């Protein structure tokens, strides 16, 4: 039966943490995930700053552990079903996927974010043929090759360092003259002889015959245009919220992130949001799991009040 007290949309760290808390509190819980459970950690090589793992943990292993913990307490996890729309109906919410509809009394939206694109010519044409957003997925294809990483934040620098395992050369292309990444990451990158930095520069186009061969670059200070021969380009320039499924339902900020209070409540009673999809948050694993726990607790209280009223 496609019914549950609580449906969690998105099986990343925030959603799976909500599922651990709600299923353990004996709330009938379904998680609907568009791909495999785990979220962004599946695309992450190594996590060093999540408390409790002093030696660090691989992203995919972290994801697997979250999933098995949620299943252990009885959460039903439905995979490979993208949710298309969330609707308010008399008795609660209808959650529509391409294949079917689910009904519930409360919903937690934990759909996270997707990588922001460069939006330059060649990016779409060569995605999967030299353009990538995931070093852990595609890095091994670049053994002894030359790659570029675009970005200057934590993700860009972590993945640039990871790519030096395979690539003979890694160029980091950044539109500013200094990095935003944590100092400890910066020091590691500056000390790595395989990494070179191209400052104050943006990618204008990605070119090649059948796969990526060349980047056209522009220096934003001098306006000078140059060419860089590469075999691949990895893009880490931020993220956009996966919030379109509730776009006509909940209040969002100007960038499409869902607005909540400190209890993860949105402006719609019974509809909660947690993790990276939320406005004004730090967007890390520790904050995503914290949000997930709070959202589950708020949903539990909401469901309790609902049954008391009926
Ligand atoms: C390369 C990289 C490295 C990182 N490294 C670190 C790190 O070292 N430390 C750290 O603390 N944080 C790190 N982060 C950030 C961290 O991964 C995120 O903050 C965290 O994953 C957010 O969790 P979330 O559950 O909110 O969202 P996500 O992890 O984005 O999960 C959302 C889930 O929802 C699913 N979904 C989306 N739309 C739908 C839909 N319509 N229907 C059904 N399912 C849907 C997605 O498939 C996904 O599984 C890193 C991120 C990246 C990209």
Describe what is shown at a glance.
This protein is an alpha/beta fold.
Task: Describe, in plain words, how this protein is organized in 3D.
The protein is of the alpha/beta class and 310 residues long. The chain has two domains: 183 residues, 3-Layer(bba) Sandwich (FAD/NAD(P)-binding domain); 105 residues, 3-Layer(bba) Sandwich (FAD/NAD(P)-binding domain). 24% of the residues lie in helices and 28% in strands. It has six helices and 19 strands. Strands 1, 2, 5, 6, 7, 8 and 19 form a seven-stranded mixed sheet that branches. Strands 10-17-11-12-13 form a five-stranded parallel sheet, with helices on one face. Helix 1 packs parallel to helix 2 and helix 4 packs parallel to helix 5. The mean pLDDT is 96. The structure holds flavin-adenine dinucleotide.
How many H/I helical runs? 6
Which structural class should the secondary elements be placed in?
alpha/beta
Hetero groups in this structure are:
flavin-adenine dinucleotide
Q: Write down the overall geometry.
A: elongated
* CATH A-level architecture of the largest domain: 3-Layer(bba) Sandwich
Q: What is the total tally of β strands?
A: 19
Secondary-structure element order, N to C: EHEEEHEEEEEEHEHEHEEEEEEEH
The CATH class designation of the largest domain is Alpha Beta
Q: Can you tell me the CATH topology of the largest domain?
A: FAD/NAD(P)-binding domain
Mean pLDDT: 96
CATH superfamily of the largest domain: FAD/NAD(P)-binding domain
Question: What is the number of independent domains?
Answer: 2
Beta-strand percentage range = 25-35%
Major sheet details: 7 strands, mixed
Which consecutive residue ranges, at least 5 long each, have pLDDT under 50? Answer: none
Helicity range: 10-25%
Rg result: 21 Å
Beginning-to-end CA distance, first to last residue: 22 Å
């Amino acid at each position: 039966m496609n019914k549950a007290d609580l449906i969690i949309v998105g099986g990343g760290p925030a959603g799976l943490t909500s599922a651990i808390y709600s299923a353990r509190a004996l709330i009938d819980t379904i998680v609907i995930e568009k791909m495999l459970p785990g979220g962004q950690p599946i695309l992450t090589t190594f996590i060093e700053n999540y408390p409790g793992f002093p030696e660090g943990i691989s992203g995919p292993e972290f994801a697997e552990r979250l999933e098995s913990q949620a299943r252990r307490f009885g959460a039903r996890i439905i995979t490979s079903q993208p949710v298309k729309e969330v609707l308010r109906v008399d008795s609660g919410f209808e959650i529509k996927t391409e294949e079917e509809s689910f009904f519930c009394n409360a919903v937690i939206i934990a759909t996270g974010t997707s990588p922001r694109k460069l939006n330059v010519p060649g990016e779409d044409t060569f995605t999967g043929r030299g353009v990538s957003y995931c070093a852990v997925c595609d890095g091994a294809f670049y053994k002894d090759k030359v790659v570029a990483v675009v970005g200057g934040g934590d993700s860009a620098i972590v993945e640039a360092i990871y790519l030096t395992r395979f690539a003979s050369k890694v160029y980091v292309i950044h539109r500013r003259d200094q990095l935003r990444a944590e100092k400890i990451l910066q020091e590691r990158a500056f000390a790595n002889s395989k990494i070179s930095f191209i400052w104050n520069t943006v990618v204008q186009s990605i070119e090649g015959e059948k796969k990526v061969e060349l980047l056209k670059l522009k220096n934003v200070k001098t306006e000078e245009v140059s060419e860089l021969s590469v075999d691949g380009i990895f893009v880490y320039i931020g993220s956009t919220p996966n919030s379109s499924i509730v776009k006509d339902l909940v209040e969002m900020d100007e960038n499409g992130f869902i607005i909540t209070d400190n209890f993860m409540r949105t402006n719609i009673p019974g509809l909660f949001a947690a993790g990276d999809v939320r406005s004004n948050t730090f967007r890390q694993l520790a904050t995503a799991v914290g949000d997930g726990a709070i959202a589950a607790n708020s949903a539990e209280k909401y469901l309790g009040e609902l049954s008391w009223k009926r």
